[in-house]
Design a protein that fits this description.
50% of the residues lie in helices and 16% in strands. By secondary structure, it is of the alpha+beta class. Helix 2 packs antiparallel against helix 3.
Length: 129
């Protein structure tokens, strides 16, 4: 009598999770450390597709394991793009705008979840509407 296999060879990291399935892949982060990155989905097939894509990303190079906030992105942009390429006074002015206007209003928002509505609300608050 043969037992029915629920997973194919090499798919040990796909497992039932809450109301669906989850899977993980060991990835190298941009800082050089290794960690597990998880993908989730309602069906096993959906998770398997995401799992395959994540494996391909991991083989290609470092994988970001978290999404930066608007504040973190602006800080990096100012440090790596503005400072080396623009005049010192322009760099200082941009830094002032970032610190006094952008970061207090939009800084904590995750970059992938930033919406037009958020920016419009922030602009309305700045203008006093």
């Amino acid at each position: 009598m043969t037992a029915k296999r629920t997973r194919a060879n090499g798919e040990g990291s796909i497992f039932p999770y809450r109301n669906g399935f989850a899977a993980y892949v060991w990835v190298t982060k941009p800082d050089g450390k290794r960690t597990r990155k998880y993908v989730y989905g309602k069906t096993r097939e959906a998770v398997h597709d995401k799992w395959i894509k994540l494996h391909q990303q991991a083989k290609a190079g470092p994988v970001a394991t978290r999404v930066p906030t608007v504040g973190e992105y602006l800080d990096r942009w100012h440090r790596e793009v503005v400072t080396p390429n623009l005049a010192p006074l322009t760099c200082a002015t941009y830094g002032s705008f970032i610190r006094h206007y952008l970061v207090p209003g939009l800084g904590p928002k995750r970059l992938d979840r930033l919406q037009v509505r958020d920016v419009q609300t922030w602009l309305n608050a700045l203008t006093g509407k």
